[in-house]
Amino acid sequence: MVSIKDVARHAGVAISTVSKVLNRYPNVSEETKIKVNRAVEELNFVPNSVAAALSSKQAGRVALLVNLNIKTQAIDEINMQYIQGAINKAMELNLDVITLFFSMFKDRSLEELIRYLQSQSIAGIIIFGMGREDDILVKLAESQKFKCVITDASIVNENTSSVGIDHCRAQYDVARKTIVENNCKRVLYISGQKDGYSAREKLLGMEQLVEEMKLTMKVKNGGLSELLARNITLEYGEYYDVVVCSSDLMAIGAMKALIEMDIFRPVCGYDGIILMGYVGKQMNTVRQDFAGISAAAMEELHQLLGGKEGRRVKTPYSLVRIKYKDIIC
Amino acid sequence: MVSIKDVARHAGVAISTVSKVLNRYPNVSEETKIKVNRAVEELNFVPNSVAAALSSKQAGRVALLVNLNIKTQAIDEINMQYIQGAINKAMELNLDVITLFFSMFKDRSLEELIRYLQSQSIAGIIIFGMGREDDILVKLAESQKFKCVITDASIVNENTSSVGIDHCRAQYDVARKTIVENNCKRVLYISGQKDGYSAREKLLGMEQLVEEMKLTMKVKNGGLSELLARNITLEYGEYYDVVVCSSDLMAIGAMKALIEMDIFRPVCGYDGIILMGYVGKQMNTVRQDFAGISAAAMEELHQLLGGKEGRRVKTPYSLVRIKYKDIIC
DNA sequence: TTGTAGGCGTTATCAT
DNA sequence: ATGATAACGCCTACAA
Questions:
Q1: Distance in angstroms, CA of B124 to C1' of C8?
Q2: What is the pTM of this model?
Q3: With an 8 Å Cβ cutoff, are B121 and A48 in contact?
Q4: CA A134 – CA B105 distance, rounded (Å)
Q5: Which of A188, B28, B144, B221 has the highest CB neighbour number within 10 Å of its CB?
């Protein structure tokens, strides 16, 4: 393996000089820069990121914490895009990434988790799909031991940013569109995890809408479960004009139930997953660009690692209907 | 951060002694082992794997190479299970993992790829879902610069193992079952990527079956594309008794086409993905335990890193029908 | 502006 | 059986 030492020798300068050039320090003459860069080229030198990570605590090792729910593989799509977007952006930014799953820490303490991350020389973490029930992770962010970016939540402090779409507005938008299109009055709203961060925001959006349009609304907690949403719909569906769901999976459960009941009610979902195209009936939904969100999260983490303060970053969304013909290829 | 040095001091021994205890070297007295382990406990010491990786080339850093096809997110399920199974097993075995995607190396040379992996101190790699067209990866395995495990292929050499189910038998089994159940004679077989490793094996299984049962068979290349399978079925479906597909996605495409054509033909798939439950019509398919396969792959890589020779590892499979009711939760 | 040298936390090779 | 000590490859004061 060709090391910085070889480059230094080849270029006729000191090791530290090479390091400075590589890390774009000021106070290096154009001339030596060129010498060094040529040596790098000629030797095909690629810096060893492991050594870099060991040497400086600043080095960008990043952990992805993914909330992988084994039971609903249908939404692996979302996590996969999260992972993909993050890793690709990380490569661009020259950050090293390790991927971890919530389940790995289910019965570990906060301290253990922190020690594990430290043993991996992790400087920053991104948490995907955290809910209120994942209290270790909430505490992890609040401990501020690491730079931290969270999607779909709203913890913000000096070392923590949140990235994601405006759930309140998005939920409002998609529900309004569906309701107006179908001229509905009585809304059955199947919400997500109780006490989830985004669940609260979405509910807020619904309440605004209800007030504004003078609707009536029944709220049931579907726990992000397709089955629960199905059962709720079987029980209450016929008494309402529209079923608004805070996730596509629940929307699918609701729609399948309605089809079985042989009654028509418009249903709208939330997320924009491909699976929506396989259900037969089209529904309005909110398309989030998950890969984009996680790329933005990585970018934001990069900023935090560079010393910037935590903040809230809003990402764009759009309203769509997903058709089978559009998604197959 | 508490380091090996602290442990040494706390236990009243030398650093190297601690290291020996931690890595289960022989020639350490019971007494000192106990002393050291107590110190480890008391200080909550967790070894820094980055430093270990830097110090010893043996250290187990592993790269996952995943073939992520952005266009067919429906099968992210498979890759997600691969990733999950591998990472969980790696944690068990104390191996560090980084995840990479084929797309990152699309227009890079083999040498660049090797250098990149070396710069990450990677000792072993697992390649998921490689096809013949990914020639860089084939060369990567053949270069033997790293210990290597491959799923769904069959490169085996001193430093390379292959892990996966017996595609020839599995394809034979699922097709036979479907054909016998429906008493078919004329088979339309939609195969996968031309020249893919597993595609060849599956075709072999079909040819055996055709000969054995005295069937006639037309083989069309569906390129693992739902759309292509759909079009093939639209064109040829009616002239055959059964449509055998070498992937679930293609089976779904075929089934949807048949439903549109309003004719019934049994269809069978391959992989056992959840999406099969959303199509409405049940089909026979081969269920592979992808997480199990990748766990086995990681285990095998661990063996290779420990000095064992490459080999072929067969994993189990089963024939199933996936029903909507079974998969929702 | 450039170079020297110490350190990051381990592992591994020697002596002892 | 145990302990110094030199790597591993890089970063970064600090000195020149």
A1: 25
A2: 0.95
A3: yes
A4: 36
A5: A188
Chain A residues 113-152 within 7 Å (CB) of strand C: 119
**Per-residue b or e along B25-36, where b marks 16 or more CB atoms closer than 10 Å to that residue's CB:** eeeeeeebeebb
Structural contact between residues B116 and B91, judged by C-beta atoms closer than 8 angstroms: no
CA nearest to B294, candidates B196, B167, B151: B151
Q: How far is the CA of B157 from the C1' of D5 (A)?
A: 39
Round to whole Å and give the CA distance between A238 and A217: 14
As annotated, the residues of chain B forming the CATH 3.40.50.2300 domain(s) are: 53-164+290-316, 167-287+323-327
CATH of domain A53-164+290-316: 3.40.50.2300
For B73, the closest of A72, A101, A274 (CB atoms) is: A274
The contacts of residue B276 (CB under 8 Å, 6+ apart) are B248, B251, B252, B269, B282, B283, B285, B322
Report how far residue B134's alpha carbon sits from residue B108's, in angstroms, rounded to the nearest whole number: 12
Cα–chain-centroid distance for residue A237? 31
CATH of domain B167-287+323-327: 3.40.50.2300
> What pLDDT was estimated at residue A194?
74
Residue B116 has pLDDT above 90, yes or no: yes
Record the tokens describing residue A44, joined without a space. 């095909």
Please give the structure tokens belonging to residue A74: 């249908």
